[in-house]
Amino acid sequence: MEKVRIVEVAPRDGLQSIPLNIPTKRKVELINRLSSTGLQEIEVTSFVSPKWVPQLSDAPEVSRLIKKNPLVRYTALVPNKVGLNKAIESGYKSVAFITTCSETFSQKNTNCTISESLETIASLRSLWSQHNMHVRVYISTVWYCPFEGKMNPDPLMNVVQKLIDLNIDEISLADTIGKAKKGDVEETLEIILKYWDPSKFALHFHDTYKNAKQNIISGINLGFRNFDSSVGGIGGCPYAPGSSGNVATESVLEICENNGFDTGINKQSLSDAGKYISDILHKGEKTNG
Ligand code: MG
């Protein structure tokens, strides 16, 4: 059976958008459970300033306390050199950066131009190479930007080319506000396929407008085999209305099964991990410990 690889982003992308202080030990338990589902990659946390993302201020503790499965790649999101150094100190062999193809989104979200964002990534190449790290880069707002609306593919192609030139291992194309539809997705991916191999890319769809499943199927049909998702669909409603709306890993698994693709993930263990975190969010635990 042909394989699809899922990158689990709930512990970072999911939890960072939920305005609750989830206790460190619960995060560790979630990641340990995810580690035994058959998932090949888990984005654990983010080494951003706790000033910006207080929900992930326990990144070093979480990273230290999780039980690492040698078959799983553990990734940390890093915004800059300080973050990359912290990830290295915490023992990561895999990091992720974020950039975007929308100049307005870049300015509003990270207070820098797209070029400056790419220069930051480029300036850290010797550091990650020296540590033999796997590097993935998210490109936000690939299809729609909350400020610029529908995106033209040209700026995207420029960003992708620069990342390919930097020898980035995986580029994750994100539908940040979940507005992309089948036709949008196919149009952009077909252009990408003229220049690059789909194995270089992951697709990060949000289910905000219930387009994610169809978009994933379009990606699969065009030969894309790497998808980002969040167990329990966490990172969206009802905890943080209007936030990311990450597509649920359970849904991606189902799509793969229905279309004859193997993810290597055990459905029951995944569902248990999803239930574990959903129950915690429903209870709304707020104390740390
Ligand atoms: Mg997301």
How would you sum up this structure, described in words?
With 289 residues, this protein is of the alpha/beta class. The protein has a single domain, classed as Alpha-Beta Barrel (TIM Barrel). The chain is built from 12 helices and 12 strands. It has helices at 10-14, 24-35, 59-65, 81-89, 103-110, 114-123, 125-130, 153-165, 182-195, 212-221, 249-258, 267-283, and strands at 2-3, 5-8, 41-46, 73-77, 94-100, 134-140, 144-145, 149-150, 170-174, 201-204, 226-229, 261-262. An 8-stranded parallel β-barrel has the order 2-3-4-5-6-9-10-11, surrounded by 6 helices. A two-stranded parallel sheet has the order 1-12. The protein has a two-stranded antiparallel ribbon with strand order 7-8. Mean pLDDT is 93; it is low at 237-241. The structure holds magnesium ion. Magnesium ion binds at residues 13, 204, 206, 235, 244, 246. Magnesium ion (MG) binds next to loops.
